[in-house]
Amino acid sequence: MKEGFKSGFVALIGRPNVGKSTLMNQIIGQKIAITSSKPQTTRNRIQTVYTGEKGQIVFLDTPGIHQAKNKLGEYMVKVANHTLEDVDVVLWLVEPSTFIGSGEQKIAETLNKIETPVILVINKIDTVKKEEILTFIEAYKDICNFAEIVPVSALKGENTEHLIDTLFEYLDEGPQFFDEDVVTDQPERQIVAELIREKALRLLSDEIPHGIAVTIEKMKERRHGHIVDIEATIICEKESHKGIIIGKQGAMIKEIGSQARVEIQELIEKKVNLQLWVKVKKDWRDSDFLLKNYGYRENEF
Fold it and tell me: Counting beta carbons within 10 angstroms of the beta carbon of residue 34, is it exposed (0 to 12), middle (13 to 18) or buried (19 or more)?
């Protein structure tokens, strides 16, 4: 191990849509976590790895902390809370605002009960005037005993290097947990499923996305290795949703497929033949059996 090499685990938390996945993708320079403007985009704890000169940081991108409305929601909150106890530093992402809503108050309550150092990250500073940033820091600074407050723009990569340097100040010398070229512990099939789900989230109307999951039925390289055949199913909760996902003369599912294929090809660096189906599984988000089937397993915390 190199002398002075530091390593540790950092949890990213925050309400849905504050930019946790965007920040993680920006830091590691590759798309692993899916992003969209819809709540509950991140459902599982996604582990990504940053390796630099100073050391290695393993990021745990948790589902957003929110009021659970069903078993899927309860699962997501449990994952988020459990993560806070297992890490060296917590990064709490918020939007630039002087208004601290009930969602933020709830997170602050949770954070005030833990002993892990908490760094507040005020994200999306590219959307406000520079002189306003101080007023946001002022509004937040007493809600929690923060180790540091760092303003960034995850989208533009502004101040993210300073954030990395700050994180290393709170990590001890330690081993390299992953090889230098590893950026995630997510199985490839899971990332592919998430990329398809992201395209569906972005293209479909608001009422449908919460109720969709994606399963990969087949992912197989052809004999000569230049093309990968992927068959995937989009699971939804209602017959009427199935019609919307398929679209007029199959237009919507075709668009989801073609947008997903572009990013899957970038990820696996091979040509992809992607086929999508749609199945209805009523109330799957409240079924323990179906939640496990679609990859949401509590025993994997």
Answer: buried
> In this predicted structure, what is the pLDDT of residue 113?
85
In 63-156, where does DSSP find H-type helix? 71-84, 102-111, 133-140
**Which of 103, 65, 106 is closest to 83 using CA atoms?**
65
Q: CA 207, CA 241: separation in Å to the nearest integer?
A: 9
**What value, to the nearest 5°, has the Cα angle with vertex 245 and ends 30 and 202?**
35
pLDDT higher at 42 or 296: 296
251, 267 Cβ separation under 8 angstroms:
no
Out of 62-71, 108-117, 284-293, least confident range? 62-71
Number of neighbours of residue 124 by Cβ within 10 angstroms: 21
Three-state SS at 150: strand
Measuring CA to CA, which residue among 139, 148, 140, 143 is closest to residue 110? 143
Under the banding of pLDDT at 50, 70 and 90, the label for residue 169 is very high
Please say if the pLDDT value at position 33 is more than 60.
no
> Which pTM does this prediction carry?
0.59
Quick one: how far is CA 207 from the chain centroid?
A: 21
**Rounded to an integer, what is the distance from CA 31 to the centroid of its chain?**
10
